[in-house]
Amino acid sequence: MIQRLFLFLVLAAMAASAAGDEARSIAITIDDAPLPDSSYFDGRTRTAKLIDTLAKARVEQVMFFCNSARMDAAGAERIEAYVQAGHLLANHSHSHADLHKVGVEPFLADIRTATQILEKFPNYRRWFRFPYLREGLTVDVRDRMRSELRKMDHRSAYVTVDTYDWHMDRMFQAAVAADKKIDFDRLRTAYVDLLTDSIEFYDGVARSELGRSPRHVLLMHENDLAALYLGDLVARLRGKGWKIIAPEEAFADPIAAVEPDTLRLGQGRIIAMATAKGYEGPTRRWEDEAELEREFARREVWK
């Protein structure tokens, strides 16, 4: 009852502030850094390309959610390169553990291991993002994790826009490995179109169900397509009136204080909050592997 009352008060405050709606804004967060070499870029080249892409797009700061198990000397050098470029680091667990499979205690140990490694970097922030956005299959586990994160002085790094950019990149890597003829112009257009559509979808749910457009948090991954085309996505968003903001500015939005009373947390904070207040509409856009494969085939991205 107390949680529901708190949620109602936060939503009421947000609705009251919706008058004179400001330009829509979104921060970029990038999971799974540092990813290993791929069929297209080796890890070092991908990091350099991603830093250059962000700089050319005039994106001053993103937040990289790191898996510290990948931080051997080469991995740590790449993470340091992101720091030197002015970007922030945060915790995505040591081994990208799945809470739903490993259980609470091993999962907490994995977070602590990552913290010990990552806090040595000056741009580390005490935000934790659950791998796979899985925060517990039961209310008891969900609430235990919320409590333990507070004890560790870490905040839950929610997203408002979930994406399957990781599957787009997986398809791309398979096409490269199979030596398919890739139309890179069509690839860029598909990537930008579908991600923009996802962002607009989640913003539409927010406006409809929460009463305003919050400061959004976009979920991306440290993959080759991001290195190639994240700048094009930023240009499209700016052309539609979006403002790219720093992650800590986005995480200062009032929805950061909400702990939604639902177990439907895997599509991010907006869907969780909407579900907690009775929303029964669609909860995702372009987050189906078969659907993405059909769309890329329809667009003839590769042959």
Describe the 3D structure.
Strands 1, 2, 3, 4, 5, 6 and 7 form a seven-stranded parallel sheet that branches. Mean pLDDT is 94; it is low at 1-21. The protein has a single domain (2-12, 26-298), classed as Alpha-Beta Barrel (TIM Barrel). 50% of the residues lie in helices and 11% in strands. Helix 2 runs parallel beside helix 3 (73-84), helix 2 (43-56) packs parallel to helix 9 (224-239) and helix 8 (184-210) packs across helix 9 (224-239). It is an alpha/beta fold and 303 residues long. The protein has helices at 2-16, 43-56, 73-84, 99-102, 104-118, 139-151, 165-177, 184-210, 224-239, 247-250, 269-276, 289-298, and strands at residues 25-33, 63-66, 88-91, 124-128, 155-156, 215-221, 243-245.
Mind describing the biggest β-sheet?
7 strands, parallel
Low-confidence stretches: 1-21
* Radius of gyration, whole Å: 19 Å
The CATH architecture name reads Alpha-Beta Barrel
- The beta-strand count equals 7
Number of domain units: 1
Write the CATH homologous superfamily: Glycoside hydrolase/deacetylase
Shape type: globular
Strand content: 5-15%
State the distance separating the first and last CA atoms: 56 Å
Q: Under the CATH scheme, which class?
A: Alpha Beta
Number of helices: 12
**DSSP helix fraction:** 40-55%
